[in-house]
Amino acid sequence: MTNVIIIEDDSKVACELKEMIEQTGSDFKVCAILHTVLDARVWLMSNKAPQLIFCDIQLADGLGFEIFRNLPIAAPVIFSTSYDEYALKAFENNGIDYLLKPINNTRLQKSLRKFVQLKELFVEGNSLYNKRINNSVSYMNGYKSSLLVYYQDKIIPISMDKLDFIYYNNYTVTVHSQNTHYETRDTLNNIITTLNPRDFFRANRQFIIHRKAVTSIQQYFGRKLLIGTVSPTPEPIIISKANASEFLKWVEGVNYQSPLPLILENARFIN
């Protein structure tokens, strides 16, 4: 649902515009009609920002551009006026289109389609941008974004976001993801150095677990912790008394453990 506000000093024009917008379909809803620069500024400072603004340029108490002065409004604006002299200034004030009055339905629909196309473009662009940023940060930090595993005589990458835990047993390391496991030729000690410590924790000599996989934490014998995970583990995951406090901080996101102490602590383990 796209929330729209109309800023128009002519009540009849405002009502007609509202009707045309909402007849476009259920994707648009006019949540407010405002008539002056002052009313609009007060409303925008007191309410959640709309996703689209229709704004008349010549209002009773000033120009529509004055509404957005010193206000952190990111919503796109479709300006309307009886004159074409303000077109350039409109595009300097979040304007995405400029409608000359009287506004007809055909021209309005074209404007709304333009808004939808721009919205989809920015959503897709932001998603791609965020993905690239996350990958770049992982690369700069030296953390892997995926792990190579062996599956049916093939080497395939598994995204770190999809990992639940990594398990060592009997000289074999397996990567577990969404109730499926894969074999890797690397060791836990080598793997932990390439993982982001905000997301992964070396639980003991046999397990590395992902934060998102932790579903429960129970007190265990000798002040140890028993960890429940989203998918079954080959054996219980036990956090030692010495690591319990650090683990709880890590789960809460209060702190995260550098891999170095665990690497040194577990260097004597052969895996």
Summarize the helices and strands and which ones pair or pack.
Layout: E1 2-7, H1 11-23, E2 28-34, H2 37-46, E3 52-56, E4 58-59, E5 62-63, E6 77-81, H3 87-91, E7 95-100, H4 105-141, E8 146-151, E9 154-159, E10 165-169, E11 172-177, E12 180-184, H5 188-192, E13 200-202, E14 207-210, E15 214-220, E16 224-229, E17 237-239, H6 241-252, H7 259-265
Q: What can be said about this structure in brief?
A:
The chain has 271 residues and is an alpha/beta fold. Helices cover 33% and strands 31% of the residues.
- Please report the first level of CATH classification, the CATH class of the largest domain: Alpha Beta
Instruction: Provide the β-strand percentage band.
Output: 25-35%
Shape label: elongated
CATH superfamily of the largest domain: Response regulator
Q: What's the count of strands?
A: 17
Strand order of the largest sheet: 2-1-3-6-7
Reported for the largest beta sheet, the result is: 5 strands, parallel
What is the architecture of the largest domain at the second tier of CATH?
A: 3-Layer(aba) Sandwich
Helical segment tally? 7
